[in-house]
Each structure stands twice: as C-alpha cells, then as structure tokens.
Amino acid sequence: MEVYEGKAKKVIPIDDDKAIMEFKDDATAFDGVKKAQFRGKGWLNAQISAKLFKLLEEHGIKTHFIGVAGDNKLIVERLQMYPLEVVVRNVVAGSLRKRLPLPEGYELPEPIVELYYKSDELHDPMINHYHAKVLGLSEEELKEMERIALRVNEILRKFFAERGIILVDFKLEFGKNKKGEIVLADEISPDTCRFWDAETKRSLDKDVFRFDKGDLIEAYRELYERLTGEKVQA
C-alpha cells in the first residue's frame, strides 16, 4: 500500500479501512519557501487534533478520527479524499485582506466560506461552485461540506471563546467513506487554523513561524494547555 507524505504529515495505510496519520516536526510557509523543524510540534498537532476531533464527534460531526496511536500518531479511517479545502473565516486576516477593503482584525458580520482546489502545482487557487463541479463534485456534496464546516465553526468558536481565544479562520478537508458519507478528515491544529488571544490578539498558530512573531513551540504549547487544562513538560 502506498504511503502518502506531505509537508507536515505522513499517512501510512494499515489495511483497507484504517491508516496511521503521523505528524512531523516540520514547518513550512509560503508554498514551502520557508522551512524549519521544531522539536515537539508533531506531538502537539496530533494531540490538539485528537482533542478537537473528539469534541466534534461529541457534537454529532462525523470525522475520520479513530484513536491515538502514539505521541505523534493518530489512527484514522481511510477515505476517498476530495481535492478541496474548505476555509471558514470569522475575522479579517491573511489573504482576505487582499480581497476586501477591511482592516485586519475586523470581525465579520457572518462567517465567510471559501473553497480552494488542492494543487501544489497551481498553488491551491480559490474556486467557486462552478469550478468545483467541473472537477467532479456535485452541488449536493458542496452544500453538505459547507453545512458541516459552518457547524464545526459554531462548535469550535464557542469552545475557544470560553478559553479566551478567538477562532479567526481555519481550513477543513473532507473525504467520502465506503458508505458514501461525507466525513471530516485531515487535521484541526494551529497549522491549519488561526487562533488569537482574545485580549492581546497575540497569534497562537503558524503565523508565529510565518512572520517571525516569536517561539512557535511556546505558542502551540500555550494553545494546548489552554484547550486541555494540562501542562506540557518542556
């Protein structure tokens, strides 16, 4: 069985139904132009993803998460993945500043959902429903992914707000299982989300690495401790 290796994760099939998702200590930004390694990053992303997948499952969201297989490994359901990233934005930040005449930090009156085609060669371009349907997705599939994404936003936004953290935006990926169900997949971590401290607007995500805002592991460790209530040994 073929092993898939991306910039931050490795997916190792166990059998026809399950796989190991291994989180690496690598960090990349700007289409891989900026690279580094941070000891402990893989562990933090795996544990944070496991915690958030469990939370979503408790609220009725079907995910590919099965269990924790080790410090930086999760057991996940194998899916037929969609070549799509679904991004939900609550606050103006990142690339949205280039598309709307609004300042960074502006809280949107309602969440914005964006679709991106997963392609390193094309640099993950933003697309709309018409483009997605040309790529083989149906209108029903797109609407279901957007529905799930907005529900995930409701759950996570409340969860993080209770811990003094703003969920600025985040990326989700989906796959289809053998029953034909659309299932939330990939990861939910500070690699794929923007988190700001509610009082200081300090970044607790990969922007710390992207824009040299401080110590990446300290930011990820603080996020983990605030969402779990558990201290991480340095």
UniProtKB/TrEMBL annotation:
Which pathway does this polypeptide act in? Purine metabolism; IMP biosynthesis via de novo pathway; 5-amino-1-(5-phospho-D-ribosyl)imidazole-4-carboxamide from 5-amino-1-(5-phospho-D-ribosyl)imidazole-4-carboxylate: step 1/2
**The keyword Cytoplasm is assigned to this record:** no
Domain SAICAR synthetase/ADE2 N-terminal residues, every copy: 3-226
Q: Name one Pfam family in it.
A: SAICAR_synt
Going by the UniProt record, its keywords in alphabetical order are: ATP-binding, Ligase, Nucleotide-binding, Purine biosynthesis
The cross-references to CDD domains, in alphabetical order and at most eight, read: SAICAR_synt_PurC (cd01415)
Q: Which reaction does it catalyse?
A: 5-amino-1-(5-phospho-D-ribosyl)imidazole-4-carboxylate + L-aspartate + ATP = (2S)-2-[5-amino-1-(5-phospho-beta-D-ribosyl)imidazole-4-carboxamido]succinate + ADP + phosphate + 2 H(+)
Tell whether Nucleotide-binding is among the UniProt keywords. yes
Q: In the Enzyme Commission scheme, what number(s) does this protein have?
A: 6.3.2.6
Q: Which GO terms describe its molecular function?
A: ATP binding; phosphoribosylaminoimidazolesuccinocarboxamide synthase activity
Q: Superkingdom of the source?
A: Archaea
The UniProt entry, under InterPro entries, shows: SAICAR_synt/ADE2_N, SAICAR_synt_PurC, SAICAR_synth, SAICAR_synthetase, SAICAR_synthetase_CS
What are the recorded Gene Ontology BP terms? 'de novo' IMP biosynthetic process; cobalamin biosynthetic process
Q: Which family does it belong to?
A: Belongs to the SAICAR synthetase family.
Please give the name of this protein. Answer: Phosphoribosylaminoimidazole-succinocarboxamide synthase
* Name of the gene this protein is made from: purC
